[in-house]
Amino acid sequence: MFSKFLYRSLGLFSTLSYRLKRRFTPAGKFVFAGLIACAVVGVDTNQTVAYQAFTFLLALFLIALGGIALFPPRFTAQRVLPRFATTGEPFTYHIIVQNRSSRKQKGLHLFENFADPRPTYEEFTMLREPDEEQRNAFDRYFKYHRWQWLQSGKLATGPKSKSAPRLLPELLPNEEGEIKLELTPSCRGTLEFTGFTIARPEPLGLLYSLRSIPKRQSVCVLSKRYIIPDLHLSGTRQYQSGGVALASSVGDSEEFRSLRDYRPGDPLRHIHWKSWAKTGKPVVKEYQNEFFIRHALVLDTFLDAIFDESFEEAIAVASSLACSLQTQESLLDLMFVGDRSYCFTSGRGISHAERMLEILSAVQPCREQPFSHLASLVLNRAALLTSIICVLLKWDNERQEMVRRLKALGIPLRVLVIANNNMASIPEPGPMSDTPECLHLLTVGSIQEKLNKLSRN
Asked: How many CB atoms lie within 10 A of CB 164?
């Protein structure tokens, strides 16, 4: 019961704070602070004359409140956005605003409107701020810092200066003005814009008159990426049943070889209609099954309810591998488990690395399914695979058992274990003891340094 009350109270406080920051001008904030100070000091009118200043400042605000009823005229606005952005890297975009009134407009400011960053009740109760246990008892009880951390995670797709207005140039009637903005996303996901707010100071310059312009747009924010050294992935070409047509949907491939006469049982989709028209008898296309290289990138998404930075680092490492592996003449299968098991294929013209990065930007931790789902997904496709790279969050018995079964099938493996700073080394290589050079521990905070030391065996 108290958790729900606390959640609603923090949500109400965030809404009130958001609206006040947008309504007051810098001068208005200063005057409002003076109003509060005079109200506190001037309670006893017999001991101080601060109440007179309070009355004067209050009168100013009442006049300013009447001034904001004069809303600014009509505007239209649009953004010119890039398709992708990258976590931690600034990107620029443009906003074009048009004055649709018959009068010149100046002194206007623009606020960007983003999707509501407030966490859900489930997120507020299930997730904990990193190192929250180190805060004092008061902070742990009222969870204000947890609320701020969760909001920053949602706003990680927006700028830190989200409440700062941007000054617009003077606009003549029906004239367009353009401003250039720069944002730095701090986490992967989707950056959702919901619209604009045009602000104009009222005559006293204490409050803004606001007019909202709805305009929904979004930018896909990709995970940060590391520099991956050239990896020599051993293994032989594997037979891929199905053909080129099937490769477009599931990653299998076959190559056109020749034309021949129709035989009973040949599929209709193989008929070569132009040749039939020329010869007067049915002719079909004959294909040759192909043998080629097919790698797998296995991502461990199984995480406890408590936030763990190693998960985001695992996404970053997987993203780095997805765009570093050469797939012009091979396929790459990305396998992970979310609400269900997923397998996405790229390479040989089927898809591109940017599609893999877009998928990885939306991957969420899996807390409902057992790890056996991922093991089954990989083992069921093992016969098609040339080699496998596993990006794991732990090195426990379940994960070692999956690796042991894959090695028993004779598939070359590289295992990357993402660990927090409290793990200096893997205590027991287990099934990788015969190839310890293919088992790597990547510690949070020194990922790039560890990646630079990957062997090429």
From this structure: 11
Residue found by looking up tokens 């104009």 in the block = 200
Residues 6+ apart with CB under 8 A from 310: 393, 418, 419, 420, 444
- Which residues have CB under 8 Å from 412's CB, separation 6+? 233, 234, 235, 386, 387, 388, 438
CA distance linking residue 457 with residue 38, whole number of Å: 74
Domains of the chain: 2-222 (2.60.40.10), 238-242+293-451 (3.40.50.410), 252-290 (no CATH)
Q: Quick one: tokens of 351?
A: 């898809």
pLDDT digits (tens, 9 = 90+) for 397-447: 999 999 999 999 988 899 999 987 766 677 788 898 888 888 999 988 889
Q: Mind listing the pLDDT tens digit for each residue in 306-339?
A: 667 889 999 999 999 988 876 556 788 999 998 8
The predicted model scores a pTM of 0.77
Give the range with max mean pLDDT: 73-77, 137-141, 252-256, 341-345.
341-345
Least confident of 42-46, 193-197, 273-277: 42-46
Structure token digits, residue 350: 């089927």
